[in-house]
Amino acid sequence: MVSDTSRLGFYLLLAPILLWLVLLIILPHVGLFVVSISEKIGPREYETGFDNYAAFFTEPLYWRTFARTAIMSILATALTLILGFPIAYYIAKLTRGRTKTTLFLMCMIPFWVSELVRTFGWMILLRETGVFSNVLQYLGVVSGPVEMLYNDAAIMVGLVYTSILFMVVPLVTTLDSLDDSLIEAGYDLGGTSTSILREIVIPHAMPGIVSGCIVVFMLSLGNYLTPILLGGKDSLWFTGMIYTQFITRFNWELGSAFGFLLLALSSFVVFLGLKLSGQSLSETMGRS
Amino acid sequence: MLRGDLLTVPQPDLVCQDLTKDFDSFRAVDHVSFDVPQGSFFSILGPSGCGKTTLLRMIAGFQSPTGGDLRIKGKSMIGVPPNKRPVSMVFQHLALFPTMNIGDNVGFGLRQRGVAKAEIKTRVGEVLERVGLPGVSARRVDQLSGGQKQRVAIARCMVLEPDVLLLDEPLGALDLKLREHMKVEMKSLQAAFNTTFVYITHDQSEALVMSDNIAVMNNGRFEQIGTPHEVYHAPSTAFVAGFVGEANKVTAKVSAMRGQHVKLISDAGTEMIVDTPQTGLDVGTWAEVFLRPEIIALGPANDDEGMNVQLGTVESVLFNGANSTVTVKDKTGSLMNVALPQTGAFANLRKGDAVVTHWDPRHARCYPVGS
Amino acid sequence: MRISLVSSLAVVAALTAQSAQAETLRLLTWGGYAPEEVIAMFEAETGHTVEVTTSNNEEMIAKLRATSGGGFDLAQPSQDRIASAQEEFGIYKPIDMSRVNADLFIPSMLSATASNTTYDGEVYGVPHVWGTSGLVVNTAMAGDVTDYADLCDASVSGKVSYRLKRPTLIGFAYSMGLDPFAAYSDTAAYQDILDQVEAKLTECKPNVKTYWDGGDEIKNLLRSGEVVASMAWDTGGWQLNADNPDITFVAPEAGALGWIDTFVLPARGRADDAAYDWINFVMQPEIAAMITNTAGNFTAAVDGDAGVSADLKARYQGSFDQAAIDNIKWYPPVPAGLEALEGATLDRINAAN
Question: Do C343 and A249 touch (CB under 8 A)?
């Protein structure tokens, strides 16, 4: 009797999660997969097959863009980590009380406006007639206007800026849990700042590093606005390609196949990252 | 070892001179001077907030003194960073690195010195054997018991052969039984390594059991430095008398003085006679009298031999084996803790029984109030 | 005389509205095509309420495709994108021409649109707003740019922008002396044209500062002087002209590309009455002029240009003389499947280095 009611409670608690999972995640993906394996042979005529996936591998533009997107995202993740780690360390270990809250808040302020506005902000700064170009001319560093927009470096800046918070937050959480006495013990035993960072701080922060990297990598890979707006003539991004297939080409079949390939790519890279860093997904996500 | 001997040792391992540390408006350590001879076990005993942790962290190098000097083996350590000092520290919660196994923990310091891998392995194995934990190198930190972790923490420091080992209340987290055991073990490890230990604690029994010398610290100052025996039996201040060991404290007014004999009347009106070399007492001044439970003798109700005799009734009996005490209420209503003789006499004492207490004036300690 | 005609029409409209059930009209349209004041007047007169969603051609079709023609009661894609979308996805329903007040429309545009949007013998669209795309040029800095191909001239290197979309392919094809619209029905011939355009645009790539994506983006680039010549819509050029007289819309020598945005009924629309009421309401000359003043483009309404601001008329006349108007290349319906060929060409241009 008791177990019956507790079981009922268990299912009631489980129901929203299950509904969310089934309705918003599994069903759309099943639908997407069905679309991705249908080949168009004429108006309103479709056949089942894997031609859309084959198209991806036979058309160099597609898989090159795919590889480019993956490599740029990995690079953006690495840059975010290199930039975010000192910030997180400073917030977690070298500040207390109000300063800590203020700094944390300052990291979050850019996220109070939409991604579009943030990206436009960067465009105002980087464009030929923009703030940076004018300041450099005023200081006499350059003689004429410089264009800093519309290239891969601009995309990188945008991606790092967009995702740094998602790196800093898990890092602060894990670094906060690092007992100061461990660092002191490291110094006491003759360690230098570098060896303590390498042997004590980084191993401890590993779950935070990995989960931050996973989130940032996913965000970069799935970013659409930043590469489109800040990127140049050759700056193709895979999500842009999916958008094009769905919206301007009316080719939902190929777009769905691309969507699935993107899912596979991100899963594969995350899996690889976990294997290389020796972390397990459950541990990483549980800790931070 | 007596205090006089300390000064004759040619070069003490650790010398502190007028060491002072100020935090904003607060002075945590106030002109502390002491020296610790090679191979001795030195404890700093004091209540929390007395400045003992700050003092230890200055020795380790985590905090720099506001004033004074600190020398280890004759060399001043002012401005020397912690990783360049010939001291090692066992932290309060041990601070074993949870991301490394035991071998890597113990070998950490040697790795920093660039010792060859093979040599690290042998030396780690040796030191673990010396602390009684052979073959645990490959285990994870969380696979060890509290006492084993304790020994690993000591081994991690000792493998570096430091001149001074600092210990920051490392027994605090252990349960009572293990703590008693570790006291003995710590003392024998110290003897085996023959390294100078500086140990801070708020637990007087740890300090008394293990130390060659104890410094009792209060409000940033050293109240007394001496052997455990001196500190226990000849406390030089009221604070030491109250903090080290059990004592009944009575506030009383001096009513007459003849040489070392002082006659006092307590708040409640009880008369007593104390022999004390203390200066600063005069007729009409207030004093604090400290009576350890074991100096008070019990007698049958009709016994009136001895001095400072009081008739009273038993308020409660606290049986605790060899440390059993009774609380006696005298006719003025004041309470007094008295140790039960271990001979088995008075074993049948019950609440309400009439008894007589008396004590030797030479065994009481008496200090002017506000000294 | 005309005023009394209009007011009597309004009365008629009001009467018909009262006889019908008040409905909510979910309108899928372009920015500027449904100004607030027009909506307020329409709601006051008919009792219907209007919900506006702004979009563009491709998203309109994508949205309607996703819901199989549901979610909206009236949409406004361009006329060349209707028959093929209907053939492929079946997202529209035919227009009941008896419910549209044909007197309000310029007859030639109404009939041209009807024939262009006919699929399986049924008419799917009536015209609303028309305009062109061509060149927007900063005449002080790039006065020599008079045709699409001039964007590849070395004198404007690095200060040129266009979209990587089908109008660019078609504009360049005309500029190169080809006739892409004539080749629409002949896939092989069209592919041949596309290949030539691809070579041209690939060669032109170093001249381009960036491929623009949104209307605001290209206006910003032109306004700041970072771009001095671009392919864009006429309205964008005229808006910029109001701020900077040097910048204006230029009808290219090869011909501006003319488009007509229409009214279509989504297949699963629920408020057809309100939709027909809206069509008949906004095609009245005064209302049409109001829309022209906000959208910047002229409408297919009879006398719809009478109430248009003098400034806009002047700019229009500055860009188009009679020869230029006669030279406008009107988009014919896009045959199904053509976009796939164009898409592949655009992808290759994008990927070329």
Answer: yes
